[in-house]
Amino acid sequence: MATALAPGLTTAPPLYGLVLAGGRSTRMGRDKATLAYGDGTPQLERAMALLQRHVTHAYVSVRAEQSAEPVRARFAQIRDTHENIGPIAGLLAAQARHREAAWLVLACDLPLLDEATLTRLLRARDPARTATAYRSSHDGLPEPLCAIYEPRAREPLCAYVTAGKQCPRKFLLSVDTLLLDEPNPRALDNINTPGEYGPANQTVIGEHAIQPRNLTVQYYALLREQAGRREEALQSSARTARDLYAELAARYPFSLTPEVLRVAINAEFADWSTPLKDGDTVVFIPPVAGG
Amino acid sequence: MAAFHFTRKPIDTQALRMGLADPACGGYATFEGWVRDHNEGERVRGLEYEAFEALAVREGERILGEASARFGIAHAACAHRLGELAVGELAVWVAVSAAHRHEAFLACRYIIDEVKHRLPIWKKEHYVSGDSGWVNCERCAAPAAHTEALSPPGRHAHKHGS
To answer: What is the architecture of the domain spanning A15-206?
Structure first.
C-alpha cells in the first residue's frame, strides 16, 4: 500500500522496534516479562519474535537494574533515562538513541497480540502523521503500547514530559495520530493480574493447539478485484471465518468490513464464528445485487 | 432444466414457459427484470453479472420451494443471466403457474424479492461516463458508519435494478 509522505520526505523513516519491559509488575506480583504463556515461552521473548519479523533493529526497553535479568539479557537493550514517568520513559530513551527512526512500540504484556493486528498497523502506517495507533475496542481511546511513533513525535513528546505529563494515551490524543480499528478486539488486552493471567493463558494454549489448516478461498465481485484473484489455496491457523477475513484483510486492500459481508463455507451460508476445518472452501459474500 | 438456473445466453422465455403448462392451472404470472439505462443519476451503458453459482442455485431452489409451500402454487421457475448485458436485455425471469391468479401474483412477487435479497449475485454497472461500480458495494466501503452497514446481513438490495 502506498503511504503518503510529509513534504520533503522521499522515503518513510526506517522503522525500529521496541518492546517495553521496564515495568514493575506490581499488580501481577511477578515479573511480567518472564511470565510464560502457551508452550512456556516468556512473553518478552514472544513479543520480540513478533517484532523482529517486521523491523531491522529490535530492542528491549529496561530500567538499569533490570538489564542483567536473563530473559532481557538475551536482547539488545535501551535503558531508561527518566524515572517514574511510566511507559513513556522507554520511548523517550529510544528516540534519543536513534532520532532518525520511527519506533514500533509494543508492551510486553500483550499475550493475545497476533500477526494480523501487527500487519494491519504496519500497512496503515502513515509517516506524514505523528503516530499510527489502534482505537481501543474497550473504550475508543488510542492504544499507545502497540503503535508507531514517527521521528516527528520526539519533540512534542519531550515537551509533553517537560510539562509534567506522562499519560501516553493523552499524548496520542494531543497530536495528529492516525487511529485504526482493531481487526481482533482481544489482541490488545493487556494482562496485569494473576486473575487475568489464567484465562489469557488458556486462550494462548488454544491457539497453539491449532495446526495450520489447508483452506481454499474464492473471491467474487469487488473482493475478487481487490484480491486480484478468483481463488487461492492457503494454510492458515485462523480459527474461524472471522479470523480468516482479518488475516486476508491485512494482506489485501479490502474496503468492505465484515459487518457488510456474509460468509459461506463449502457452498452453504455459515456463521462467522463457525470453526474452520482442514479442506474447507470459504467465500466472503459482498452485498448482493441480483435481479 | 432445473427450476432455477443461470445462463450466459439470452433467456428463451417461450421455451421456459412450456415447463409451467398444467391443465389444472388457470393463472400464469411472470416478472421480467430488464437492464435500465440509468441508475441513481448515472447513465448506464451496460451491466455485468457475476454469481457464486453453487450457492446461488441451492438458495434459488430453496426460494422456489418456499413460494410453493407458502402460496400453494403448482409450478415456479426462475432464470438469471450472467456475464455482460446491454441496456434493454432481459436479466432475470420469474414465472409461476397456479389454479388462480391471486396466488400466482403473490408467489411471483415473493420470488423476485427474495432472489434480489438472498442470492449471491453481483452486478457491476458500466456508466456512459466511462466509470463503473459494483452496485451496493461501493458505498459500503467507506469506513464511516453508513446506514447500509446497519442492515441485517444479506439485506443490501436497494430500490433499483429491475
So the answer is: Alpha-Beta Complex (3.90)
- Please give the average per-residue pLDDT across A219-231, as a whole number: 97
CB contact under 8 A, A288 and B92: no
* Alpha carbon distance A283, B52 (integer Å): 9
Taking alpha carbons only, the member of B123, B104, B131 closest to residue B161 is B123
Helix (H, G, I), strand (E, B) or coil at A198: helix
What is the phi/psi pair of residue A217, to 5°?
-120, 130
For cell 499510527, name the residue: A132
The residue among A94, A69, A101, A100 whose CA lies nearest residue A80 is A94
Cβ–Cβ gap A218/B143 under 8 Å: no
Cα–Cα distance, A65 to A67 (Å, whole number):
6
The DSSP bridge partners found for residue A16 are A103
How far away is chain B from the Cα of A101, in angstroms, using its nearest Cα? 30
Q: Give the type of residue at B130.
A: G
Q: Tell me: the pLDDT tens digits for A154-203?
A: 999 999 999 999 999 999 999 999 999 988 888 898 888 888 888 888 88
Considering only CB atoms, which residues of chain B are within 8 Å of chain A?
33, 49-52, 54-56, 58-59, 80, 91-92, 112, 115-124, 134-138, 140-141, 143, 148-149, 153-154, 156-157, 161-162
Instruction: ipTM value, please give it.
Output: 0.85
> What pLDDT, in 10s, does the model give residues B8-38?
999 999 999 999 999 999 999 999 999 999 9
Give the Cα separation of B162 and B158 in Å (integer): 10
Measured between its terminal Cα atoms, the distance across chain A in Å is 35
- CA distance linking residue A120 with residue A123, whole number of Å: 5
Rounded to an integer, what distance in angstroms lies between the CA atom of residue A217 and that of residue A270?
Answer: 14
Q: Is B8 exposed, middle or buried (CB count within 10 Å of its CB: 0-12, 13-18, 19+)?
A: exposed
Task: Match domain A211-285 to its CATH number in 3.40.50.2300, 3.40.640.10, 3.40.50.1580, 3.10.20.30.
Answer: 3.10.20.30
Work out the pLDDT band at A54, boundaries 50, 70, 90: confident
Can you list the domains of chain B with their CATH numbers?
4-42+51-121 (3.90.1170.40)
Count of residues making up chain A: 291
- Gap between the Cα atoms of A27 and A1, Å rounded: 41
Classify residue B9 as exposed, middle or buried by CB count within 10 Å of its CB (0-12, 13-18, 19+): exposed
Please state the φ and ψ torsions of residue B124, each to the nearest 5 degrees: -105, 125
> Helix or strand or coil: residue B94?
strand
Pairing status of strand A142-149 against strand A41-42: unpaired
